[in-house]
TrEMBL record:
Organism (species): Polynucleobacter asymbioticus (strain DSM 18221 / CIP 109841 / QLW-P1DMWA-1) (Polynucleobacter necessarius subsp. asymbioticus)
Domain of life where this protein originates: Bacteria
InterPro entries: Glutathione-S-Trfase_C-like, Glutathione-S-Trfase_C_sf, Glutathione_S-Trfase, Glutathione_S-Trfase_N, Thioredoxin-like_sf
CDD domains named among the record's database cross-references: GST_C_6, GST_N_3
Gene Ontology molecular function: any one: maleylacetoacetate isomerase activity
Keywords: Transferase
Any GO BP annotation: glutathione metabolic process
The GST C-terminal domain, residue ranges: 100-221
GST N-terminal domain mapped to chain residues: 16-95
PROSITE patterns (alphabetical): GST_CTER, GST_NTER
Pfam families with a match to the protein in the record: GST_C_2, GST_N_3
Name the UniProt record assigns to this protein: Glutathione S-transferase, N-terminal domain protein
Amino acid sequence: MRSGVQQTPNRMAILDPMKLIGSLTSPYVRKVRIVFNEKKVDVDLELENVWAADTKIASTNPLGKVPCLIADDGEAIYDSRVIAEYADGLSPVSKLIPADNRERAAVKTWEALADGIMDAGILARLERTLRPAEQQSQTWYDRQMGKIDTALRQMSEQLGENAWCHGNQITLADIAVGCAIGYLLFRFPEIKWQTQYLNLDRLHQKLLQRPSFIETEPPAA
């Protein structure tokens, strides 16, 4: 006896490729691009200028910031710290964030310190480039540059003579630090951190040998 209910074959949902919305000069975008590269996970890069009058970034990230990741299910993920952690869980290759809770916190603290340098640097640069000269605040600018100086000193002290920021292999801590000091070279070449903090320079030179850093080098200003 034949049933009146017809069986339909199971169909797997068709997922779109992941898409990373960002710019070539953002240090936060560079950070997550390096993470995807180190994890051997493919992601399409869609360039977006958030300062352009016709930017559409708010349609995916209401904060109007990059990077913004459109996952393969179409959902938006932001900001760079969230994307980096998400990317690290996509592949067992090159685990960048430790599973141990305390070690994880240590790596994420390094990332917060590095991101703080980038935050301060961007705020200082915007003060000089977006505000009319008569409206610029030297006090505000000096405050941001002071944060950078203090953070660099802390980084150097914590790194000491170690080969890596945490543990015996590259982690998200090193990637974040490399992007932060690389951003200073890109936007603030007058800050001579290389001669003041030789251990940070050694780490940076080592990172620059990696394909992930080479491929994400920002274009000449």
